[in-house]
Amino acid sequence: MDKYRYNNLAIVLEEKEVSNKELAEGVGVSENTVSRWRNNLMQPGIPKLFQIADYLEVNVKDLLRDNEGAPKG
So where are the chain's domains? Predict the structure, then answer.
């Protein structure tokens, strides 16, 4: 079963031309953490998600995928 991707962080970072290092420094986490978020290996908590959105100057909804294809139950 494919792992469901919960966030669009990789897409937004590409569009904004922001590196993992820049985001990591901007929101106070390690580059490894950003890499894990970007690859959907782990997800940021809600407060951190809002901090990321503020840093990237996007709506928090832009960072999240819709629920089409989300696992049921």
Answer: 9-63
Residues 12, 4: Cα–Cα separation, whole Å: 18
Proportion of the chain above pLDDT 90, given as a percent: 75
**pTM, 2 dp:** 0.83
Only one residue has tokens 């832009």, namely 62
pLDDT tens string 23-66: 999 999 999 999 999 998 999 999 999 999 999 999 999 998 77
Residue 71: pLDDT band (50, 70, 90) is: very low
* CATH domain 9-63 topology: 434 Repressor (Amino-terminal Domain) (1.10.260)
Within 13 Å of residue 53, how many CA atoms lie on the same side as its CB? 16
Residue from 46, 60, 64 nearest 8 by CA: 64
